[in-house]
Amino acid sequence: MLLVRGARPLAGAATRLVSRSFSTAANNKFVLTLNAGSSSIKFGVFDVAGGTPVERCSGIVEEVGSDHSRLKLVVDGEVKRDVADLHIKGHGEALASIRDALAPQLPGAIAAVGHRVVHGGAAILGPALVDDAIVDEVDACAALAPLHNPANALGIRFARDTWGDVPHVVVPDTAFHTSSMQPESYRYALPKSLYDDHGIRRYGFHGTSYAYVTKQLAAALGKPVSAVNAIVCHLGSGASMCAVEHGRSIDTTMGLTPLEGLVMGTRCGDVDAGVLSYLSERGYSTSDLDALLNKESGLKGLSGGLASDMRAITKLAEQGDSDAALARSVFVERCRKYIGAYAVKLKGRVDAIVFCGGIGEGDADARRRICADLEGLLGCEIDDTKNQFAVDGESVVDVSTQFASTKVYVVPTDEELEIASQTASVADLIQVEKPRVVEEPIVEPSKDAAPPIGSVLFVDGGGATAPAELGLMFAAMTAHEKVGFFRPVHHGFVDRKLALFREVFDLDDVPVEAMYGVTEAEANKLLAANDEETLIEKILTKYLAYRESRDFVLVSRPAIGGSAGRLQLSSGIAAAMQAPVCWVHGLYADGTGEFLPEHLNDELGDNELAELAQVASDLREHAVRLAGVVVANLPPDQTHEKVRDQLKGLGIETAALLPHDDSFEKVTVAEIADTVGADLIYGCESVFKNQRVDSMTIATLDVANLLTHLDNADSNHQLVVVDARRADVILAVALAARLKTIAGLLLTGPAVGEETHAVLADLDARKQLPLPPILKARAGSTYQIAHAVSTCVETMASTPSTRRLHWLISTQVSTTTPRMLPTSHSKLDAARTLFDRYLEPRFRNALGAPPDQYEVITPKLFQHHLFTKARRDPKRIVLPEGNDRRVVVAAGELLERNLVELIILGNRDEILAVADEAGVVISEEAKTHVKIIDPEACDAELFDQLAEGFYELRKHKGVDLEKSKELVRDDPNTFGAMMMKLGLADGMVSGACHSTAATMRPALQLLKTAPGFDIVSSVFFMLLNDGVKVFGDCAINVAPSADELAQIAVASAHTAKQFGVEPRVAMLSYASGDSNQGALIDTIREATSKAKSLCSEYPIEGPIQFDAAVDADVAAIKYKGSDSEVAGHATVCVFPDLNSGNNGYKAVQQASKTIAVGPIMQGLAKPVNDLSRGCTVEDIVNTVVITALQSQE
């Protein structure tokens, strides 16, 4: 069977706009929409050049095939042509007349043609480009829509002839439903052969209207389409309703044909099928019945044939006609019945009830009556004043009361506009962009607003976190278009939590391997080697790759054995990801299963508060923000205000305060099977997935006693555990399945005997006596399986026949939360419902808020970006100090991590001896990326090339060739600089045992400054816990002038941007703004002005003090009322001279124990960087990588 889906989603909800005059621009793109009937063709033209369809004209050709054909064309609301008594023989001539009528009205040609198709069947599941196969499919559905599809297909064929050089697109009315409805919603309870052979099922109609209205509703609610849950009522002479979940149809009232469902103008809607046979026996033919149900029923039939139009029915009812009043009441009650049904299907989570269509948009009283008394069911209440005036048919109007939890909207539909939008999208006339979460300007949060969470949230906790993670994920889905789930450490062979989220939230668009960082075995190996840095780097690499295609990612705590040290690891991972943490605190942490006295007083205990305070402190030490705390299992029927106040007293944001819900303690047969490793061998799979287990009975001896015990047991839903060889017990319990006390049979030990299999298979096949779920454990004795089950069930019972195991099964076992499965519907629903109801509004808003505009880049993320970019394009870096042990160790690390290609200068034997002594081992692959060159004994050709090149560059300074050879041979910095000058190397790092002057002199003499720079300056990357900052100049310029200071500022901003730090430049001084005067401040003020004129793309502020530049609280005081983008959020700090800069970076480095990478030189034609003589191996690695990246530019 042909399956056709739309090429791409639409960018957003289109709006019908009518322009007063056509543009004559050459880039107009026109879409023609056609709705071909048996004797008429409606058409419209839309300009899509601006990205949103704009209606230009519309019209109709009527009475095709007669001598009285008529063509009417309306342009910008003005009738341009209205000609009657034409002789238009057929659809071909009708389309030609449309083409000719449009030609003088359009400044350009038709770019695409969209065709309304009433029935797409089960084959065409979305808007699709037309080819012969598509036309054949439209024809094949003629039996399902005999009045429409033949004409639709005919219109498509002739239109392809008339506009043969443009794409044609079909937009089926059924596709909105058939693309997403599940079998339980679309199958009739008829013989399967009728579905297989004749396609008899529910298809639904008005899909184009529902697609348009859903987008309009999403825009009104400020949500992405995928987050919308609604009941949409398309009410007109043809009427239907649709349940929309996550922006997609899950059920609709019309079925195989448009006859099923609501009461319509002349169609009956739902009716007992027995009526047909009853009337057939009394002489009604098939055609009589068809005419009766489609043309004489509905409002017309109920009113005694008085009228089929609701306006006329309403008028008659107002005049006292009882039949008309009844017709209106039946119409309303049918709508109300389906609202109730769809509210259940949507599990009570309904954003809005929406009315569209002629009656839906224009009949305020019908809306009022349909929504009456829904306050208790859905929290839905209509505002009578708003409702009365919402009848203009043009605006999207919220007619509900202010505090209604389920809104009521009137949304005018526009099917032609939707057809034009879908056609333009499929034909590539509209540039489709990723939908934004909220199409509103970003506003500053109020002081009472929780800080925005942004695109990632890390979840950890002291107990079970899965329910909270599920609830947070459901909440995130309402705010973000595409969500993801990431596990830093995976359990290994199977990670059930990852599998759960992958299936429940349809996250299977990537392989499982993309959704986790490392396995538990890998993590333990690296932690045992005390190499947490490599572990976090591996996790971060996988996470960043996964995050690229997501709007939001929920990161679950690492699945690693034991809790000791896990918070430290979680903190390190969260810091690297720049992820705020949500901490989950469960009240049953002590394992008693009972509330503490403090809990019953609506408070947390002292130990619990101390634990939460310690968590917040530990996270702060890693520069990780605690976004909020979820407190779970609180006593029900309390306000929890005291708990909220306690958290506030600790400076902790409340994410959610969740009352105890025993749904999470109930266990199903499927969950036990998953826990103990058992398979369903007999019984109904749906019962297996949903059957609750309250207790366990181990059956060992007497069958009679066992059955008596089961019959008399207080506990329902018992799971019977029995050895597979006990055929008597197995068959007895299976036959006793009529007792409510049997949840299932769990067989242990060896395989089930053949005779037992045969009897069970026969019972299962007969279906006369439904078998309970019968499971077979894959391994384990009865004792082992019973012990495993005991961790899942709350209570266990012993029978008189199980005395030898009495010591095991009579012991009360504390409840543990069983593993949730994708089929654990009660638990999934409980998680969603709890967070729908109890997630704090402040936290919910933060969850949907975009990242802070002043978001910083953390040290770990900064280093990761550096290393990733370096690996993509390895550069040749010279290390002139090959005899320095630190340089050799750093070289080994650089090579093993495949970051650069190295040229190490020095005596080969001495360098290898240092490497051997330091334990540096380089793989054979890495050895291919390094050269060791001894300037005193190198290849003669290379040496002469370098010496002669030096001579040519410096002979104007009186340097002869011999002196040139001497300098190249004796000074490794000169040797390296000349290699760069001649294109034999890309960059150089020196200074571990050379002075800054010795390192930089050859670079300045030979490489010179880059175009646009008069001076060379330097910066340090300060890898502070709360974000990377750039300090300059801290190494080169002693007392820069205003012009030089401006160049340093601009160069530092460019360097910051190059390395992923968003530049916000602070020109530092001992005073801020206009608060002081003096020569130095005047210089800084002048430099700030010149820097702004040199570079307008980055914010620059000065003079400004250091504390006001980097501390938002200080800035709020010193820059009160200012709209400075820099104050409190500076990322680039420019010091006024070398004295302050050098002391400043060293003071920050030592006081905060921060890594300072640099100095990084800027302004040279090719990168040369100077190390501090006290540098570490890590300093060298970072500086080499930065040098490599500089050379990539």
Automatic annotation (TrEMBL):
It comes from the Eukaryota. SUPFAM superfamilies: Actin-like ATPase domain (SSF53067), HprK N-terminal domain-like (SSF75138), Isocitrate/Isopropylmalate dehydrogenase-like (SSF53659). The keyword Acyltransferase applies. GO terms for molecular function: acetate kinase activity; acetyltransferase activity; ATP binding; magnesium ion binding. It comes from Pelagomonas calceolata. Keywords: Acyltransferase, ATP-binding, Kinase, Magnesium, Metal-binding, Nucleotide-binding, Transferase. Residues 671-786 form the DRTGG domain. HAMAP family: Acetate_kinase. Its cofactor is Mg(2+). PROSITE patterns: ACETATE_KINASE_1, ACETATE_KINASE_2. Substrate binds at R116. Pathway: Metabolic intermediate biosynthesis; acetyl-CoA biosynthesis; acetyl-CoA from acetate: step 2/2; Metabolic intermediate biosynthesis; acetyl-CoA biosynthesis; acetyl-CoA from acetate: step 1/2. PANTHER family: PHOSPHATE ACETYLTRANSFERASE (PTHR43356). The record marks H206, R267 as: Transition state stabilizer. This is Probable acetate kinase. ATP binds at K42, H234, L235, G236, S237, G238, D309, M310, R311. Mg(2+) binds at N35, E415.
